[in-house]
Design brief:
The complex is a heterotrimer of chains A (about 425), B (about 210) and C (about 750). Chain A has about 425 residues and is of the alpha/beta class. In chain A, about 20% of the residues lie in helices and about 25% in strands. The longest helix of chain A is centred in the last third of the chain and has 26 residues. Chain B is mainly α and about 210 residues long. Chain B is built from twelve helices and no strands. In chain C, about 30% of the residues lie in helices and about 20% in strands. Classes of the chains: A alpha/beta (about 425), B mainly alpha (about 210), C alpha/beta (about 750). Chains in contact: A-B, A-C, B-C.
Chain lengths: ~425, ~210, ~750
């Protein structure tokens, strides 16, 4: 870390998801000095946990591969993982930021050969899989992790497993004595790209996410599709592992709701439509999907994706916010109760599996910003001159889909560059 | 058509939504409904409503005055508050339902034979006499609400309960004659009269 | 520095390479067969010591070409990052030992694989030259913005704020675009409750007072030529006077026009002036200027208004728009508020099928509308007729399940946006074909070009879907098929004003980035930073035009003598032109017919009796090659007889490679490229598609060589095809086993 040089003509990008990576690369490719910090061991953020994107049903790693190639090739870009921002002070053109880097316990000698993982026995909940499966104490976050370097879970340090890991490494890459480090840097502008987290579905009491096995959130469902994920790529019921062929999707679970998140999270309608195509992919014609909605927000040009799903005979749309879910104890089937507002049909529908299309909550809580920024009632950073040289990019600015998040990140790169160019102009 | 009803019809001339906003308790919330249906789905007596709350809101917005006010639907509300808790738009649904029922009654167009309506009136009559509910008389009034035959049947059915209550001094047969009063029941009557006057100035009431 | 080529070959023994392979033999091969001048082995090449060793050879031993036989070229780039030398990576780790089992039986073929990759690496680097960059790289900081609406104004102001001079060309007599004709706009900041001042006047005044922004009103672009860094545009007024400007990059912000609502007679438009579209309502609101809005027919103050959403949109009916325009729900709420803010007693009803008010601001605005008393009815409008008192909207109320005929003083149709994207260059031009029904070709009206590019492929940016010129990438919304020209705003895809302004800012960044990189001769996305560009040997050219026509980016023009004219700064370095050229006169310094062709020719091909076939795999470096790397990382093995060569794009594959491979005795050839078609993944848009077309035509070649068609297979491979990609190679191995070894071995 000592070789990171930063001046007030440097741009700091906080957050290494698709928005942060984009903002960093775009600014660096304009010739600016950029430091990108990410608190997790790898870049990628939440898009790396998705199976496919809508509407093209393409793979997130495809775009990430190009971004990583561009990042690796750019000498203006400095990437720091395991790093968070602990303090910020100053003003536009002259910020002092303190970065805290947590120890990875693995150094640059790591060749990602995987021997440490094989040697270790301790297991921990996999954050990448939303706790749906376990991972070893020495692990590579995922296939396309960048840096391609293993990590040791801090919970394993001081145990026998840590020593086993070190012994297994032929490259002297395991450093059990690594400590947390702190650096203070000067930067000129800051792009805040801390992204979102899925709204905690347990809080939606009537839906029983915390009580019923076969009620899962949309991000958990998405993990099932990864062949390397918790179910090996199969769509199954958590209760008994049987294939889930009759799936209910509940829209606005926790969004547009003054009890939970007041805002609309924008992506959940398209995400559900996309997930109905997963059912068709896995089960061909042998499936049923029911979408319980208030309004289907498949906006602008991608409305045709909605039209295609509407034409799929196996997908039904019911204009109803589900009132409550109970469980059939014998079968484990969740039963959805509510009223279909188009026709007043009162229903108690059993399904194999229920997917709650949970909303996006901004990742950094309103009061947890290290410096004062204007935040609206929904927790998103507002564009405000008072924010000085701090600009929100991606989902920290609003609930956005990937295309718009990248658009936002590209725009914020320019705003950061405006600050830098002003500084450079005054400094001659 | 009662006179009060006539007056409102003329005043609001087809704008039922505005009429509700002006005259029904919490009526200004009706416009905030986004027709999600969670209230209808959450109501434990839902199947017994002709029109569940969310449909009522839509009907109000669509100007279906008679269907709404003459409906027995809102009288089915037991104030369980399930709907209010779950409504994503924060509508005070329970209060609106009671408000609609009350308004319909004031205008004299509430369904006459609706049980809750009838019982509510009995309760009111009972309570306002002395300021205290005369439980024995109220109970009897409830049993005989729908006629002597049914009254006797119900009384007989409930006689064990009644005897039990007598034995444990939860019920006093003296209530048949007198019953508890509050102090200054004349003062109470004056308060109620004044309140009625004030309210009538705002919202007309049938028959007055 | 001597011009003498000195090749350094470095064999790594780490990651198990030393145990699984005979590195000594590999070193010998590098020296004797690969003709490397300097060969070294190292235990752990990527660590500081190994890297220093290589750097020392470069600095002090005169090594100017390096071949690193170690892990994949996608790995350890930070370590093997040597400046000013050509570098080739022989993929011995992911490509050999990780993709083969560690057993005694496999050892021999594994070694042969490694040996071949070392030979290939040496051949490749021999033909690679470090690209010196374009000596004619042009430098120009000026930006051209076509269109002076919100998008154009925002782009100009943002670019100017970063220090870049901007010229705006606007065809009407004023700045502001469609926003200038709006009374107010949808709010862009909290509490998102009320319509806001459009901001047009403020932006226009900012532009006027800026010394960095020049505005041409009443002007259009009549000619655009050149390339990033050296665009030249003729800006002409209606009267015909022309100024020529020179620019580094261009932003196309020509916006969208309102859908012609006269195509909706069933909704009453044209039958009565009291049925207007959203633009029509803005006009009435502007006229009212805060006072009561009056209806056009008789000037009566409007007491009731019905908004019909999705009018002529989201529909596959003829004449309708198949998409949603993204802003109309919010706009209708805003317009309903015009009435409510002036007089809360006015009835406003929005008849919709889905209320689309996304995000934080959207939902807040919806609630605010409801709070002001705007009512919303989910319904399907069947028609709007003219009644005695005004228009009547007949719709099916889907919640109450009843037919309603609502009479109103005014009806507003929420119609859509149609992009001003100019000429659709992919439309068939020939009108001779009797099968074409000339009356039903869309568009019906001759469309004027917006940019008037002198490019051979056509005067405007290509349209991909519904007339919008977005390139339809999800991760790269700005990626354009005309390098250096960035489209922004509703001409790119349907959007509301807030998004349009954000889009403008992003496009301004990309335009600045383009012109900065043009100065340095550097390529844009996805091969960012690449200094190579097509080198053209004119003497051999047969003027067949294939390169010019097939270039996905229209980077090649035609000169007066009808030879292709390459424009380095417009090139994305995909190599599709190289793949197209039947006489192979196009190449890049670091990627040519030889860098691949010599690789495949210089492996060891055993004779047919050894029963060790050779399968050539040409894998696109964007999706297929990473998939093979990750397959190996996950322990998925494939045939030891495969020899994988990464290519920049499948479009760069010249059929000579296939022919040469077959002639040299390869038994099978597998081509792996990215997905093509409507949901294409190809990072160069058309490359994969073009390759598939070319390969579908090589059956003749195969026949003339008396070879079976099955020996050459072309696939679309995704980056996640970790199981499938190895299976495709094994499938070819099976085919070879069935049809037998190639008769061309010797």
């Amino acid at each position: 870390m000592s070789d990171v040089i930063a001046t007030n003509q440097t741009i700091l990008v906080v957050g290494g998801g698709i928005s942060g990576v984009t903002a960093a690369i775009e600014a660096a490719e304009c010739g600016k000095q950029v430091i990108l910090v990410e608190k997790n061991p790898s870049l990628g953020g939440r898009v790396s946990q998705l199976y496919k994107y809508f509407p093209k049903l393409c793979f997130p790693s495809c775009g990430m591969e190009i971004n990583l190639r561009r990042a690796k090739a750019n000498r203006n870009l400095n990437i720091l993982t395991m790093t968070e921002v602990s303090a910020v002070s100053g003003e536009s053109g002259n910020y002092s930021v303190t970065l805290k880097t947590a120890p990875r316990y693995v150094n640059e000698n790591c060749t990602a050969c995987g021997e440490c993982e094989k040697a270790v026995e301790a297991e921990f909940d996999s954050e990448y899989d939303y706790g749906m499966k376990k991972r070893k104490g020495a692990y590579l976050p995922f296939n396309m992790a960048y840096p391609q370097r293993y990590v040791l879970d801090p919970g394993m340090i001081g145990t026998e497993d840590a020593d086993k890991a070190r012994a297994a490494c032929k490259y002297d890459a395991i450093d059990l004595d690594m400590q947390e480090t702190e650096t203070t840097l000067t930067v000129g502008a800051i792009v805040w790209a801390t992204g979102w987290q899925p709204y905690d579905a347990d809080k939606i009491q009537p839906y029983g996410h915390d009580r019923y096995d076969n009620v899962v959130s949309s991000v958990e469902f998405e993990r099932m599709l990864d062949p390397r994920g918790p179910t090996g790529g199969k769509i199954v019921r958590p209760s008994d592992g049987k294939e889930a062929k009759d799936v209910a999707f509940i829209q606005c679970a926790g969004s547009r709701d003054r009890n939970h998140l007041k805002h609309c999270s924008r992506i959940c309608c398209m995400a559900t439509l996309k997930q109905t195509t997963y059912l068709r992919e896995k089960f061909e014609d042998d499936f049923k999907a029911s979408v319980y909605y208030i309004d289907i927000r498949a906006i602008d040009r991608i409305d045709d994706f909605y039209q295609n799903v509407q034409n799929d005979e196996n997908v039904t749309f019911i204009k109803s916010k589900v009132a409550s879910i109970t469980e059939d104890k014998e079968t484990g089937n969740p039963i959805l109760h509510g009223v279909d507002t188009e026709g007043y049909h009162r229903y108690s529908n059993p399904h194999d599996l229920v997917v709650l299309a949970v909303g996006m909550e901004p990742s950094v809580a309103k009061d947890a910003f290290p410096i004062d920024v204007t935040v609206n009632d929904n927790g998103f950073i507002e564009a405000d001159e008072a924010n000085g040289g701090i600009f929100a990019a991606g989902c920290s600015s609003d609930a956005l889909d990937v295309n718009r998040a990248v658009q936002s990140a590209t725009a914020s790169a320019l705003r950061a560059i405006q600050v830098i160019n002003r500084v450079a102009g005054t400094e001659g | 058509m009662t006179d009060a009803n006539q007056q409102m019809v003329e005043q609001y001339r087809n704008n039922f939504l505005r009429e509700v906003e002006d005259n029904v308790e919490e009526g200004e919330w009706v416009k905030m409904c986004m027709q999600c249906g969670v209230c209808s789905g959450s109501c434990p007596l839902g199947p017994h409503w002709d029109h569940p709350p969310q449909e009522l809101f839509m009907m109000i917005r669509a100007g279906k005055r008679e269907e709404v006010l003459e409906s027995s639907s809102m009288w089915m509300c037991t104030s369980c508050y399930n709907c209010i808790v779950r409504c994503p738009r924060e509508l005070p649904i329970t209060h609106i339902m009671h408000g609609l029922a009350h308004y319909a009654k004031r205008l004299g167009i509430a369904p006459k034979n609706q049980q809750t309506h009838k019982f509510a009136q009995l309760f009111w009559n009972n309570l306002t006499k002395t300021g205290r509910v005369n439980e024995l008389k109220l109970g009897l009034a409830l049993y005989f609400m729908n006629g002597i035959g049914e009254g006797i049947k119900t009384s007989l059915k409930m006689q064990d309960v009644g005897l039990g209550m007598l034995k444990t001094k939860r019920l006093s047969p003296m209530e048949l004659i007198g019953g508890h009063k509050c102090k200054d029941s004349k003062g109470l009557k004056d308060i109620l009269k004044k309140a009625e006057e004030l309210e009538a100035a705002r919202i007309p009431v049938a028959g007055k | 520095m001597s011009d003498e080529i000195k090749v350094g070959a470095y064999i790594c023994k780490g990651c198990g390479l030393g145990e699984r392979l005979d590195c000594g033999e590999l070193a010998t091969i590098a020296e004797r067969e690969g003709k490397a001048n300097l060969v070294r082995e190292h235990e752990f090449l990527c660590n500081a010591e190994g890297v220093a060793m290589i750097q020392n050879d470069i600095d002090n031993e005169g090594v100017n070409k390096v071949i690193i036989a170690a892990c994949s070229r996608r790995s350890k780039n930070e370590a093997f990052n040597f400046e000013n030398v050509a570098i080739s990576r022989a993929n011995l780790r992911e490509g050999v030992i990780w993709s083969r089992p560690d057993t005694d039986e496999a050892r021999e073929t594994t070694q042969e694989m490694a040996a071949d990759y070392v030979r290939m690496g040496c051949s490749e680097v021999k033909y690679m030259t470090l690209p010196p960059g374009n000596e004619e790289a042009a430098s120009n900081n000026n930006l051209l913005v076509v269109g002076g609406g919100m998008v154009g104004m925002t782009a100009a102001i943002e670019a100017a704020a970063a220090g870049y001079p901007v010229t705006i060309v606007e065809k009407s007599g004023q700045l502001g675009g469609s926003a200038a004709f709006e009374y107010k706009r949808i709010p862009e900041s909290m509490p998102y409750a009320d319509p806001e001042n459009t901001g047009v006047a403020e932006l226009a005044s900012q532009i006027e007072s800026s010394d960095k922004i020049t505005v041409h009103l009443n002007s259009t672009i009549t000619k655009t030529s050149g390339a990033p860094g050296r665009f030249s545009a003729d800006i002409s007024t209606e009267s015909g006077s022309t100024t020529t400007g020179n620019f580094g990059a261009i932003i196309m912000a020509s916006g969208a026009s309102n859908y012609d609502a006269s195509q909706l007679p069933e909704l009453g438009y044209g039958k009565t002036p009291d049925v207007v579209d959203q633009a029509g309502l803005e006009k009435l609101a502007l006229e009212a200027n805060g006072g009561p809005i009056k209806r056009p027919s008789d000037g009566k103050e409007v007491q009731s208004v019905v908004f019909v959403q999705c009018a002529g949109q989201r529909s596959t009916e003829e004449g309708h728009l198949p998409y949603c325009s993204g802003h109309c729900c919010l706009t209708s709420i805003k317009q309903a508020m015009y009435f409510k803010d002036q007089n809360p007693q006015i009835d406003t009803n929005v008849v919709y099928s889905d209320m689309r008010t996304p995000g934080a601001g959207g939902e807040d605005f919806y609630r605010s509308g409801q709070n002001k008393g705007v009512t919303f009815t989910k319904g399907k409008v069947s028609e709007v007729t003219v009644g005695a008192n005004g228009p009547e909207v007949r719709f099916n109320d889907l919640i109450l399940n009843q037919e309603v005929n609502q009479q109103a003083d005014l009806v507003v149709l929420a119609t859509g946006q149609v992009p001003n994207s100019g000429v659709d260059i992919d439309l068939p031009v020939a009108a001779d074909d009797e099968d074409i029904d000339l009356d039903n070709i869309v568009p019906e009206v001759k469309v004027e070009s917006i940019l008037n590019l002198t490019y051979r492929q056509g005067p405007d940016l290509p349209h991909l879907k519904y007339g919008f010129n977005d390139s339809h990438f999800i991760c790269f919304p700005y990626e354009t098929r005309r390098t250096g020209i960035y489209s922004a705003g509703p001409v790119r895809r349907p959007m509301d004003m807030a998004q349009a302004k954000e889009d403008a800012t992003g496009a301004a960044l990309k335009a600045i980035q383009a012109l900065e990189n043009a100065k340095l001769g550097r390529a844009a996305h996805p091969r960012s930073g690449d200094l190579s560009f097509p080198l053209f040997r004119k003497e051999g050219c047969t003027q067949c035009k294939r390169c010019t026509v097939e270039c996905p980016f229209g980077a090649i023009d035609e000169d007066e003598e009808r030879y292709p004219q390459f424009n380095e700064a417009r090139c994305r370095r995909c190599g599709t032109c190289m793949g197209a050229c039947p006489v192979r006169v196009i190449s890049f310094d670091n990627y040519s017919v030889d860098t691949v062709g010599q690789q495949l020719k210089n492996i060891d091909i055993p004779d047919e009796f050894e029963e060790k076939p050779r399968i050539l795999v040409l894998a696109c470096e964007n999706d297929a090659y990473p998939a093979l790397d990750m397959a190996a990382q996950n322990g998925n093995h494939y045939s030891p007889f495969a020899r994988v060569i990464p290519v920049r794009c499948l479009g760069s594959v010249n059929t000579i490679w296939v022919t040469d491979a077959l002639n040299s005795g390869y038994d099978g050839i597998v081509l792996m490229g990215c997905q093509k078609g409507d949901n294409y993944q190809c990072h160069f848009v058309k490359g994969s598609e073009i390759a598939h077309i070319r390969m579908s035509k090589i059956d003749d070649t195969l026949q003339s060589l008396s070879l079976e068609k099955e020996r050459v297979a072309t696939y679309e491979v995704a980056i996640t095809d970790i199981e499938r990609a190895p299976q495709l190679i094994d499938a070819m191995a099976d085919v070879v086993e069935q049809v037998g070894m190639s008769p061309f071995k010797f």
